[in-house]
Design brief:
single chain; 128 residues; mainly beta; four-stranded antiparallel sheet; 11 strands; 48% strand; globular
Length: 128
């Protein structure tokens, strides 16, 4: 079992920055692949960034490419999402997730269906 806890959300003005954290506990040796998702009111949950354990692969959705950066500190069992140049469309609850079975080496996934462990989410609101 893996437990994931997100933090770092809040209210920020357009153009501002936030850094989200996802702290993992439990069977962390299996955390090869971790992803960030978000869900805005009335919309489906969407994958935005994913990373493999040793940085051998990262991926960002087109909507956040160039503005968001995913990273991880394996010693702290923590994954980060640095969000810059935030826009009102980035307002959502942000979740981190991990699968029981990671993807093949050299890839990571942004599909909600393959992820089994989820955090409770952290709210990000971008507003002036």
């Amino acid at each position: 079992q893996v437990q994931l806890v997100e933090s770092g959300g809040g209210l920020v003005q357009p153009g501002g920055s936030l850094r989200l954290s996802c702290a993992a506990s439990g069977s962390t040796s299996n955390l090869v692949e971790i992803a960030w998702f978000r869900q805005a009111p009335g919309k489906e949950r969407e994958g935005i960034s994913c990373i493999r354990r040793n940085y051998e692969w990262t991926k960002h959705a087109d909507a956040v490419k160039g503005r968001f950066t995913i990273s991880r500190d394996n010693a702290r069992n923590t994954v980060y999402l640095q969000m810059n140049i935030l826009e009102s469309d980035d307002t959502a609850v942000y979740f981190c997730a991990a699968p029981k079975t990671p993807s093949v080496p050299g890839s990571c996934r942004l599909n909600t269906r393959v992820y089994d462990y989820w955090g409770q989410g952290t709210q990000v609101t971008v507003s002036s």
